């Protein structure tokens, strides 16, 4: 019997400058099934969904999108929505200051006389769609006052009100607690009975195994395999997700010999009052002198939040537990306190949190320790520039001059400036958050070499990374966290990509 | 590239030197148009009004008067620059300044306090108000616009209370001295020698600090600007300084208002460019998240900036009351807006992190020149605001358009054109041919149209590469050969 495919995407190729984000990707989804797309961070899942929903217009990629039996040329999200494809992103697109019923129909209002909004009908219909998704709230409440789980249901109600045929959910349960997640998954199963097909991106393999009718695994922008219900099991998925050898891109360093503990967290909890949940719970990590410790976990697992909790808590989470630095319990209530304790933090987003883009290399390098280049508050530019020159030379930052704005540097060189800035503050503990994100292979190797040099000098380094090869190639010991909870600890000798992935996907 | 020296006559060499000098000058102006644009605009305004008023505008009396008029705006604009650099705004300073002026005048005239006590009282008030404003903005995170808008209303009220809604004149010697007094003069043939000597000392200071800066750069290994530009700049600055000194000297010398302005600007210029506090302020403005993560307390910096703004408002208010020799409930409106306009005309970026206090002063002079010049030349006074608004808008548009100016070196390009000119010509012809062939192929609907398109792209690439090589050529690259 001919299978009824609601969606076929044929040899989709999407190029970004210097990267093949999608390389001849093929997927097909049968009518009325729940299809999962699974892959590591950066495998191309979100890019593929953006191609499907028309965010990347028809002309910007190669390949065909067949929906409901005909080739589609979407030029924007409006086109795909009018054909019944609705995407719900991880970052919800609700208006927090509008009421629930307004949110359901915003953008496709119910009108009378052509232009006038029919509020009575809006309320009536929104009630109907909210019932369909099982959300029982006062429709006059502001969407922002509801929890994330309920907000998600409003998004789905909104999708239903747009006559959705294919519902795409990008990591819908990443921000939800267990109860809300279970409800959402049940809802998808119920909607399936109503004839709505879903595509879901998820890192949580347990839920994949629970409700998937089929799935496609992507890796490095390529389709690896399509599995049907009967073949799906966790082990097989992990094997195909990871499936690559660690290439020889990691410089060697002498084996770690052991040393005293320099940093320890004891029952560290961080509570985010905006999200109303724990983003770090009961973290117990130890870092020894001259050791490289990796923190692995999927996006949104709470890795950066953990680093922030240690580094003076700039986002003002509610923190409990103890931080012990150099055998002393310390209270770090601002990044300055952490810097004074000899801790440095190279942030994940160098443009947003790390560098002052319109200032020069030398200004950026010296900003974290102005005392070192000043006397009585007056700057010594000779010192500033001498230090800057030295780091430019030591770290091989490629620039015509230290007076260059960092804005004009390549990603790799910007990252080196960020690292220089923190080395300048003479840290004993260096936290690197995604140290090689968005930089090319050559620059990566250089960053790794710098890490090894620092370790040789006795520095202790904490690397947070979503790239498994990096964690496996650089670290002496590895902690894995998932949903804010520390789920495993591995010595590098025992660690494998499969084991880490298993602990990261609860 | 070697110049064929032997075949060139002396005249040819000389004309090349002059030509080269202008090329270098224009290159510098084009590369640094952001820095010089404002000075060029100011010069244009001066000359235009000079012509329109039969040079009365630039005469010693009026010029001195203009600088005295500008003083209170300049001082406010200096503080406002830091406020804008840290991504905030302060609408309250006009009425705060006017209120503090009234406070001091009333304290001295009606309550018989000594000037020092009155000034100290005003200082305490403004520091406390600054801290409160800063805490609302930084800690409670109320937008600065709202906090200071509230402050504007509140202090308008306080001003009316303080003056009892009445005009209060003063003839206290302190206000006379500050407002309409001049420094000691020693006149010879109608010209004040003291002003001339101060001008001369400043001139020498400019020249020596310029030369010292170049030496320092050499020590640091930072490339200096070309020597001919440096000399041109020095000559230009000397001319301006001499003119200024002479003009002031031939009227009544240096006024206290001008002196206070210069001292304030000098302190703030030093603070912003040479101290760690200055670095921190600009870091907070450039990227608050990164600054906080670098161990800088954003809250503290914002409070400091607000307090500094308050202190400058006090100085400004006292200057204004002194110059008019009175205080009145009508003082205050639009001061803050002039200051904000001056900061933006001076190149402050609303996105934060960029702005120089000295340029804000130039901005103030631009604004006051427009007011003063239009009044003098008999233009309908109602047009004044229209012109001022247009100038503000133009200045910001100019700023946005010149944000990504790429450096050019016309001398280098001149050499490069000689060297790669033929290559470029050839590449251009090839490109044209390729395009023609592609067009033909497309019309004939050949199967391998793509092949032709590919050729066009390639030819375009070659052409662009050579073109770019010429564009980025620098003089140094050729002299070494």
Protein architecture, described:
The complex is a heterodimer of chains A (506) and B (481). Chain A has 506 residues and is of the alpha/beta class. Chain A folds into 3 domains: 5-242, 3-Layer(aba) Sandwich (Rossmann fold); 247-342 and 428-506, P-loop containing nucleotide triphosphate hydrolases (Rossmann fold, 3-Layer(aba) Sandwich), CATH 3.40.50.300; 356-426, no CATH class. Helices cover 32% and strands 27% of the residues of chain A. Chain A is built from 17 helices and 25 strands. In chain A, the strands form 6 sheets. Chain A has a 6-stranded mixed sheet, sandwiched between helices. Chain A has a 6-stranded mixed sheet with strand order 19-22-23-16-24-25, with helices on both faces. In chain A, strands 13, 14, 15, 17 and 18 form a 5-stranded antiparallel sheet that branches. In chain A, strand 4 and strand 5 (70-71) form a beta hairpin. The longest helix of chain A has 16 residues, at 178-193. Chain B has 481 residues and is mainly alpha-helical. Chain B folds into 2 domains: 32-181 and 255-401, ABC transporter involved in vitamin B12 uptake, BtuC, CATH 1.10.3470; 409-479. In chain B, the strands form 2 sheets. Chain B has a two-stranded antiparallel sheet with strand order 1-4. In chain B, a hairpin with a 2-residue loop joins strand 2 (187-188) and strand 3. The longest helix of chain B has 34 residues, at 410-443. The model of chain B has no long low-confidence stretch (mean pLDDT 90).
A few lines on this structure:
Chain A is of the alpha/beta class and 506 residues long.
Tell me the strand order in the biggest sheet of chain B: 1-4
Rounded to the nearest angstrom, the distance between the terminal CA atoms of chain A is 38 Å
CATH architecture descriptor name of the largest domain in chain A:
3-Layer(aba) Sandwich
| Share of helical residues of chain B | over 70%
**Fourth CATH level, the homologous superfamily of the largest domain in chain A:** P-loop containing nucleotide triphosphate hydrolases
Largest sheet of chain A: 6 strands, mixed
- Tally of individual domains of chain B: 2
Q: List the quaternary state of the chains.
A: heterodimer
- Average per-residue pLDDT of chain A, rounded, comes to 87
**Helix segment tally of chain B:** 19
Residues in β-strands, percent of chain A:
25-35%
- Mean pLDDT level of chain B: 90
User: Which word captures the global form of chain A?
Assistant: globular
Helix content of chain A: 25-40%
């Amino acid at each position: 019997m001919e299978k009824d495919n609601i969606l076929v995407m044929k040899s989709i190729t999407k190029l970004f400058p210097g990267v093949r984000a999608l390389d001849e990707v093929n997927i097909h989804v049968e009518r009325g099934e729940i299809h999962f797309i699974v892959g590591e961070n950066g495998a191309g899942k979100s890019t593929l969904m953006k191609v499907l929903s028309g965010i990347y217009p028809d002309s910007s990629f190669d390949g065909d999108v067949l929906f409901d039996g005909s080739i589609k040329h979407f030029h924007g999200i409006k086109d795909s929505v009018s054909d019944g494809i609705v995407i719900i992103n991880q970052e919800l697109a609700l208006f927090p200051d509008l009421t629930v019923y307004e949110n359901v129909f915003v953008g496709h209002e119910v009108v009378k006389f052509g232009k006038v909004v029919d509020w009575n009908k809006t309320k009536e219909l929104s009630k109907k769609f909210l019932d369909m998704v099982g959300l029982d709230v006062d429709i006059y409440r502001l969407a922002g006052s509801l929890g994330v789980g309920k907000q998600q249901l409003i998004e789905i109600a909104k999708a239903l009100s747009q006559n959705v045929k294919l519902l795409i959910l990008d990591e819908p349960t990443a921000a939800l607690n267990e109860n809300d997640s279970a409800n959402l998954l049940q809802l998808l199963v119920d909607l399936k009975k109503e004839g709505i097909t879903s595509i879901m991106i998820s890192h949580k393999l347990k839920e994949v195994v629970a409700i998937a009718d089929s799935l496609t695994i992507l890796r490095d922008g390529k389709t690896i395999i399509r599995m049907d219900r009967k073949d799906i099991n966790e082990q097989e998925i992990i094997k195909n997700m990871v499936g690559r050898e660690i290439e020889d891109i990691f410089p060697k360093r002498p084996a770690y010999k052991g040393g005293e503990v320099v940093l320890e967290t004891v029952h560290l909890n961080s509570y985010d009052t905006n999200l109303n949940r724990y983003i770090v719970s009961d973290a117990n990590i130890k870092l020894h002198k001259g050791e490289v410790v990796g923190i692995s976990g999927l996006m949104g697992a709470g890795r950066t939040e953990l680093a922030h909790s240690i580094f003076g808590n700039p986002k003002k989470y509610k923190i409990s537990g103890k931080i012990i630095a150099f055998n002393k319990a310390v209270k770090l209530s601002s990044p300055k306190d952490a810097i004074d304790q000899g801790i440095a933090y190279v942030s994940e987003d160098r443009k947003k949190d790390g560098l002052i883009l319109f200032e020069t290399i030398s200004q950026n390098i010296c900003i974290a320790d102005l005392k070192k280049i000043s006397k009585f508050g007056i700057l010594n530019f000779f010192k500033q520039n001498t230090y800057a020159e030295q780091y430019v030379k030591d770290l091989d930052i490629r620039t015509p001059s230290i007076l260059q704005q960092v804005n004009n540097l390549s990603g790799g060189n910007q990252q080196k400036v960020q690292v220089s800035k923190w080395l300048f503050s003479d840290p004993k503990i260096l936290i690197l958050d995604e140290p090689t994100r968005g930089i090319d292979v050559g620059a990566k190797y250089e960053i790794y070499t710098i890490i090894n040099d620092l370790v040789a000098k006795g520095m202790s380094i904490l690397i947070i990374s979503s790239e498994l090869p990096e964690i496996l190639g650089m670290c002496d010991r590895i902690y894995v966290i998932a949903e804010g909870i520390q789920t495993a600890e591995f010595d590098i000798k025992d660690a494998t990509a499969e084991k880490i992935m298993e602990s990261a996907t609860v | 590239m070697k110049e064929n020296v032997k075949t060139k006559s002396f005249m040819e060499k000389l004309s090349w030197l002059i030509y080269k000098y202008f090329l270098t000058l224009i290159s510098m102006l084009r590369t640094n148009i952001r820095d010089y644009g404002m000075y060029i605009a100011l010069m244009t305004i001066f000359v235009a009004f000079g012509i329109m008023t039969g040079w009365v505008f630039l005469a010693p009396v009026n010029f001195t008067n203009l600088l005295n008029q500008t003083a209170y705006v300049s001082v406010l604009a200096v503080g406002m620059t830091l406020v804008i650099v840290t991504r905030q705004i302060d609408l309250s300073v006009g009425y705060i300044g006017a209120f503090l002026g009234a406070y001091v005048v009333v304290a001295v005239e009606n309550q018989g306090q000594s000037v020092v006590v009155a000034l100290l009282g005003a200082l305490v008030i403004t520091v406390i108000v600054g801290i409160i404003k800063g805490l609302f903005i930084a800690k409670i995170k109320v937008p600065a616009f709202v906090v200071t808008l509230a402050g504007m209303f509140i202090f308008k009220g306080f001003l009316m209370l303080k003056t009892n809604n009445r005009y209060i004149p003063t003839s206290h010697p302190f206000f006379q001295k500050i407002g309409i007094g001049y420094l000691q003069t020693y006149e010879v043939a109608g010209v004040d020698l003291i002003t001339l000597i101060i001008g001369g000392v400043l001139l020498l200071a400019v020249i020596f600090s310029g030369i010292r800066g170049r030496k320092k750069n050499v020590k640091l290994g930072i490339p200096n600007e070309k020597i001919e530009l440096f000399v041109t700049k020095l000559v230009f600055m000397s001319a301006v300084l001499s003119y200024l000194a002479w003009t002031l000297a031939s009227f009544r010398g240096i006024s206290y208002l001008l002196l206070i302005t210069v001292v304030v600007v000098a302190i703030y210029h030093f603070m912003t460019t040479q101290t760690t506090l200055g670095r921190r302020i600009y870091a907070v403005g450039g990227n608050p998240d990164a600054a906080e993560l670098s161990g800088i307390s954003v809250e503290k910096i914002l409070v400091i900036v607000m307090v500094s703004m308050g202190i400058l408002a006090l100085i400004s208010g006292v200057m204004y009351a002194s110059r008019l020799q009175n205080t009145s409930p009508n003082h205050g409106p639009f001061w803050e807006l002039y200051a904000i306009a001056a900061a933006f005309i001076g190149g402050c970026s609303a996105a934060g992190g960029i702005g120089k206090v000295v340029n804000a002063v130039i901005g103030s002079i631009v604004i006051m020149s427009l007011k003063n010049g239009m009044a003098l030349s008999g233009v309908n006074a109602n047009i004044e605001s229209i012109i001022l608004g247009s100038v503000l808008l133009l200045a910001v548009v100019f700023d946005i358009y010149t944000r990504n100016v790429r450096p050019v070196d016309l001398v280098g390009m001149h050499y490069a054109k000689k060297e790669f000119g033929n290559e470029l010509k050839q590449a251009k012809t090839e490109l044209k041919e390729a395009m023609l062939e592609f067009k033909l192929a497309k019309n004939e609907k050949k199967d391998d149209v793509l092949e032709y398109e590919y050729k066009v792209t390639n030819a375009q690439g070659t052409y662009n590469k050579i073109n770019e090589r010429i564009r980025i050529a620098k003089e140094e690259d050729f002299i070494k050969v």
